[in-house]
Amino acid sequence: MLPPEFRISLLESEGRLQERVGGKNPIKVLDFFEVLLNDIQSISEYVGMAKPYRSIKMLLNYKPLRDSIIQKGYEPNLKNLDTLMAFTEENISTNTKIDGLFGAILRGTTRSVLAMPHIMIGQYVSTGGYFLEADGKYRSVLRIAATKATEQRYLDNWSFFRLRREGGLTSRVMGEIVQSDKALRALTGKKDAVNYFLAGINHVDSRAIIEAGRITEAEMSDKSRKGKSKEYWDRQGVEPSEVEFESEEYWDMFRKRAYYLVRRTQPMFSPEFRSVLTAGKEPTKRMFTMFRSYVDQPLRMAARTLTAYRNGTISWTDMSSQIGTAVSLFVFHSIITNIIKQIMFKEDRDLKEYILDALTSPLGALTFIGFPLESMIQRAVETAWGERPGIWKPRFDTVATSWLNSIIDASNDLALAVAFIGSGEKFKSGPDKGMLKSEAYLKRGLLRGTEEGLRFVGIPAQIPRKVYRGWTKTNKGKFKLVDIK
Questions:
Q1: CA 258 vs CA 165, 204, 211, 317, 357: distances in Å
Q2: What does the alpha-carbon distance between residue 31 and residue 29 come to, in Å, rounded to a whole number?
Q3: Model confidence pLDDT, tens digit, residues 427-478
């Protein structure tokens, strides 16, 4: 019989095996199989992880041990362990109706964001983080694109890469999005149609993960390793270059090192890699920190570097260099995405603005205040340059609330169109000059409503509009404050 202090919050007490009572609502076949497959995955995790979860929680909940740890001054570390366990287990939560609403909105709108070309191509920038954990001499490996043969070798011998490549698991968001694909693949061998728009970001992410494998193989064949690469293999106590190429021992070493590189530098989707801000499951909580997995990893790299410096294991020069590398990921991402946006959308911006974008981009890592702060600094600098900034109000917005605001705006345009029917009033200035207000508002409302409707189901309808406006010069010149004379 276990003492009472051990029998606290064990996995079995959380209701995972509790009998569920069916509802009276009609069953949607696809939804049913999505839930079924999710349940199978949960049960699989339970079977595989119940014993280790139970063991560690019994240990962490043992009061004499907790009291001893706290007395020795390690209470913050103990709380961190408790938090990590809570993240990893993902205890069952009940969504409210408002959660259901925002969850439905996010399901499609996040697809439309991730399908934007500048977003998907910017994903590859994260490969720069590998060289915080590997020596810079292996950058030369990445100058030549990986071949199809290399990709197939990794698919055959690296299960993590196969899961990420074929499962579309490039982040927590993508992992949840492809649940519909899992059901369809199990039933029909096909994909959810709207997920074809995500093939781009999934492909770019797989390219980034392949690079970890190529760096690993370059290290394993090199007897003159140095820097972080030498440190890693010295810790392993083996010389990988002496192992038979593509033997089982070779692939075991490869998988361990490649996964180490990925988990320490790339966006990760599984619960144990989530931060305090992104651990919640409810859509109303998560929508304010969407896509944080792309930001959290550089912040972790910087935090590990600062810890190493405080512990005296690296010099000031090394610390500065490594933090500079982590910060540069934001800068290069800004440069790459702006180049793509300029090519596709012909944005009316000058070089100074792009440079300012790049220099202020690391501020985006600050939760909630980062992007408004970045915009305010940019506008202050532009004003100091003598430019007259356009009308702008800082907003605390999310993908879901932005979609709702656009739907409200479209409804307002349609209401105005009805109000002006028969009035004969026309616009006297602006892009709709000379056009009947009823026609202009009707056109605007229908176009915006259609675009947001497509975004709701995951189709990135904003791309054609931006391309059209850019290449037809309909957005030439910035929107300026009216000059009253």
A1: 15, 17, 9, 27, 33
A2: 6
A3: 888 878 888 999 999 999 999 899 888 888 777 877 877 777 777 754 444 4
